[in-house]
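FAQ: What does the model actually see?

It sees only this:
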Amino acid sequence: MHTDFDRCVRAVRSKDARFDGWFFTAVLTTRIYCRPSCPAVPPKDRNMTFYPSAAAAQQAGFRACKRCRPDASPGSPRWNERADLVARAMRLIGDGTVDREGVRGLADRLGYSTRQIERQLRAELGAGPLALARAQRAQTARLLIETSALPLADVAFAAGFSSIRTFNETVREVFALTPTELRTRASGGHPPAIPGTLTLRLPFREPLCPDNLFGLLAATAVPGVEEWRDGAYHRTLRLPYGHGTVALSPRPDHIDCRLALTDQRDLAGAISRCRRLLDLDADPEAVDGLLRTDPRLAPLVEKSPGRRVPRTVDAQELAVRAVLGQQVSAAAARTLAARLVAAHGEPLAIPGAGGGLTHLFPSAEALAALDPAALAMPAGRRATLVRTVGALATGELALGVGSDWVQARARLAALPGIGPWTAGLIAMRGLGDPDAFLPTDLGVRRAAAGLGLPATPAALTRHATAWRPWRAYAVQYLWSADDRYWTATARPSVTC
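And it is asked to produce this:
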């Protein structure tokens, strides 16, 4: 979009927040870059130029605006809508892969050469993987500076910088302030009320309908790992450097996020996973605009626009839970998962976690090492679970944020016991495929019949071709129309 000068100018003139994250406005006279919705008086057209990423604007010598904070805008929806090399690379960079493993590690995960990845990222985003990772480090540093009481030297290494000097230089270059000045200027920049807890605001594009998003997460919460408490969804996190817990609460214009981490270097990855869990980088205008064209779905969209797809912080965990949920109710699947956690989960060791959070969900490696006889479930489902965790543990089945969706679905389909419903659910909530569809799901079929849509899987699939590429969102609207879908567990009252 950044190449369409006239369209970008119109978005800036109208201060349209829908375009935040799609492109960045750089002002040639002030050498500042902003988000399209910046409240400042727009510059003259001839003084504006546009970049596809904050990293590209920074590389061109522009610093972040202090009023609109473009580094904190919602991420581009392109990286969650697409499954090509650039999108997979961006998801991995957001998860901290370059900081942990370097560009070579990124290339190895994607199966391409570093030269090919560098070329494609520069062609589309105007910056290479190192520059993109640097921009993310700067944003992580800003969050730690403004929301924690960590000494600045600790902030530097927690944000992923290799030296304090590089940290100081980057912060001054990107924000035109020293780290000390950033901390002094931070609004409400006092130490958090709970020691070790970081309180953040996660932005999103409006509208956002929180009831199905948090309702599904709360209704299927596995005791010990997740819970709905005090108006917030709480869960444990398994992260590259350590463990953590998060509490997520819906607000009118943001998601309140409270993180407790055993290692602050996991902050960027934890934020990325929380955003992915709640599908916060989605473009609801595009999704709802298409689904409204179907007269059967239009009333559901008009009633509660902005539904998101509840995803996951750990695709391997989601795959295990999808297998446990085969041919049983949501309540039964929750009970099976809770038994698995109690028997084989890793105890959580975070002071002040509170509530009912006690364990991390068992890793695929831990489950693969178990005696199958120790898994108390029907023989057929036990065999499917053993095969699934074995494939995950060996890497035969890759479900990470940088996975190839087509390849992952093919390997899922090749596993005996994994049917279309299980593969579709993993694709929708684990891989994040926005076009994943569940025509055999009982709730989807009941809702379709009630709306006058075709009720058989084949006919419904044919009808749903008009909903592409947003069929996963259509599933959310259909589920919302089926009250019996929520009977497994009481649906919590979720409002902003």
